[in-house]
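Here is the promised in-class demo. Please do not try to memorize the tokens; focus on the logic of going from shape to residues.
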């Protein structure tokens, strides 16, 4: 069939992997590349339907019937790291199985990170029988090449060169720089071209315009021999995207009215060079690639700012703390660049994974507790300055449990390490303790539930809450909050961005697109915020009781007496009320 006649559905099953996030509000670069490659391969825009996992599920039977009537169904999926999502549920293996069983006529393609670990998934062999194509690695390239073959005509991108590049697999023993450079550049430039067309996905997304564009800077682990548990090493194709291409992509997305960006699709932003540079990879015996200058990073950040004057969010993900801690001078320059051009509330997630040196050694992790501590200090020093009341850039810390080499002392070492950070007056925006994913071939250790529960409890009480109090002091006004869910008497919302704080807002506010809130209380991993300005005389009893120190009887008195100013409010609340809870707040006394 000529590509011009192919009726296609592109299912965005969402992805979450160590180097990339594509669960709403994030839109992954990979789904955009695929969309662009389908169009470049000759499929008409009007013949491509974009369906998210949530939309598929909402009207499943109807969607299955509609899928069955198409010619091509492409499913992109794969969460290779564990996660909790507020605004979207990734397509499950059971759902993929069901689709594969119920649709027979269309060519069914599976792509995305799920294909990297496919063989290890339960029933994958059986499901594979119903799949026509499983594209591992870069699915957009394979789809484009197949369409070119089918269309029997030359397309804009030299398909032959792309074919040669795609077939190339960079084996560890085969890391000749020239070879790798030539091959990967062809793929990277094709993806960058498709990324421009792929920007059209945003306006087709059901959550438009409340979306964040996840942007890819480079692909693959920069180390020759990576951490034992990480799925990134399963990627054979590695590339660096040119800063000019990324800037063009940002411009194309901004033209679609999306102004929230995260440079989140890479394993380490400080290893971004803008070109593949694999010489001098031996760093401290850890085989890491070090970006020896920050030129590409500065060019990139500056360029992004220039092409989107309406930019609202520019955040990042993933920085290797080992590189930063070992190369402070170079690191300082990069962190200065990032925190000059980024927007406040940015987080550099550090994968220390364990404070136990034996575990780090057993898993070939590229950092030490001391190097990570230095990196935390450095980010606090440069990124800790506040803009709009919140720090520009803070570190986050990831821990994994179930790693090889762990013993009963490991959890204690983790807690002690966090206490050391707190006692040094340093801030962490977020601490993530997760169980290692055994989806690949990594034989994780069994985790003792009670010990993990105890660790999480201690971290919550001793570290998380005090840190949140410092990062978001009472009275801080946070703008651009997206309300998304109601539970109990609270509306839950988040600011768009990297590792956004969860905010419980008293009352029902789903009718609002965005909100401004002021912080009144702190949980372990979330905060409570009142709408700003807070019309105290318009709030009901339940809403008022979320203010620390106001119980039901004080709330009743406020509702009855409707104080008209601070003095009257003080009298209503009585002398024993901890007034310091309300002092930092901006209150509106209108009736
Ligand atoms: S350094 Fe380790 S965690 Fe990071 S991408 Fe490489 S293997 Fe994965």
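The designed amino acids, position by position:
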């Amino acid at each position: 069939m000529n590509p011009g006649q192919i009726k296609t559905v592109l299912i965005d099953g969402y992805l979450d992997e160590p180097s990339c996030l594509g669960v709403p509000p994030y839109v992954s670069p990979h789904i955009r590349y695929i969309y662009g490659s389908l169009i470049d391969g000759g499929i008409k825009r009007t013949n491509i339907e974009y369906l998210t996992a949530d939309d598929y599920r909402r009207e499943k039977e109807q969607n299955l019937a509609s899928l069955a009537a198409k010619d091509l169904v492409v499913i992109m999926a794969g969460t290779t790291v564990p996660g909790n999502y507020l605004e979207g549920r990734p397509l499950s293996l059971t759902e993929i199985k069901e689709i594969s069983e119920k649709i027979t006529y269309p060519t069914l393609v599976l792509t995305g990170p799920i294909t990297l670990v496919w063989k290890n998934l339960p029933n994958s062999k059986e499901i594979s029988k119903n799949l026509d194509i499983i594209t591992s690695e870069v699915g957009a390239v394979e789809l484009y090449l197949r369409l070119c073959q089918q269309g029997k005509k030359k397309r804009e991108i030299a398909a032959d060169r792309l074919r040669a590049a795609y077939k190339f697999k960079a084996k560890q023993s085969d890391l000749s720089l020239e070879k790798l450079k030539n091959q990967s550049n062809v793929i990277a430039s094709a993806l960058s071209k498709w990324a421009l067309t792929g920007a059209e996905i945003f306006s087709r997304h059901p959550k438009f315009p409340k979306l964040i564009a996840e942007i890819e800077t480079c692909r693959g682990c920069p180390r020759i021999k990576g951490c034992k548990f990480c799925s990134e090493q399963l990627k054979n194709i590695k590339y660096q995207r040119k800063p000019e291409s990324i800037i063009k992509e940002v411009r194309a997305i901004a033209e679609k009215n999306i102004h929230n960006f995260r440079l989140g699709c890479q394993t380490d932003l400080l290893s971004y060079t803008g070109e593949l540079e694999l010489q001098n990879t031996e760093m401290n015996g850890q085989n890491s690639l070090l970006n020896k200058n920050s030129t590409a990073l500065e060019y990139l950040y500056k360029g992004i700012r220039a092409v989107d004057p309406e930019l609202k969010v520019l955040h990042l993900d993933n920085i290797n703390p080992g590189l930063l801690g070992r190369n402070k001078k170079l690191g300082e320059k990069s962190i200065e660049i990032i925190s000059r051009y980024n927007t406040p509330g940015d987080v550099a997630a550090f994968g220390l994974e364990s404070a136990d040196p034996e575990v780090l050694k057993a898993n070939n992790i590229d950092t030490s507790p001391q190097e990570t501590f230095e990196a935390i200090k450095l980010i606090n020093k440069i990124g800790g300055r506040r803009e709009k009341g919140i720090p520009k850039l803070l570190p986050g810390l990831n821990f994994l449990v179930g790693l090889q080499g762990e013993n009963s002392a490991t959890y204690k070492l983790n807690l002690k390490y966090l206490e050391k950070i707190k006692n040094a007056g340093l801030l962490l925006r977020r601490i993530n303790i997760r169980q290692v994913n055994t989806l690949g071939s990594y034989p994780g250790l069994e985790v003792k539930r009670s010990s993990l529960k105890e660790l999480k409890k201690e971290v919550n009480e001793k570290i998380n809450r005090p840190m949140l109090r410092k990062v978001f002091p009472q009275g801080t006004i946070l703008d651009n909050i997206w309300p998304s869910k109601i539970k109990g008497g609270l509306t839950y919302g988040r600011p768009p961005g990297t590792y956004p704080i969860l905010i419980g807002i008293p009352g029902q506010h789903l009718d609002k697109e965005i909100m401004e809130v002021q912080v009144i209380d702190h949980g372990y991993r979330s905060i409570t915020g009142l709408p700003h300005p807070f019309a105290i005389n318009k709030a009901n009893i339940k809403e008022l009781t979320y203010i620390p120190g106001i119980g039901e009887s004080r709330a009743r008195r406020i509702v009855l007496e409707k104080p008209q100013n601070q003095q009257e409010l003080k009298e209503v609340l009585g002398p024993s009320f901890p007034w310091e809870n309300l002092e930092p707040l901006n209150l509106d006394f209108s009736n």
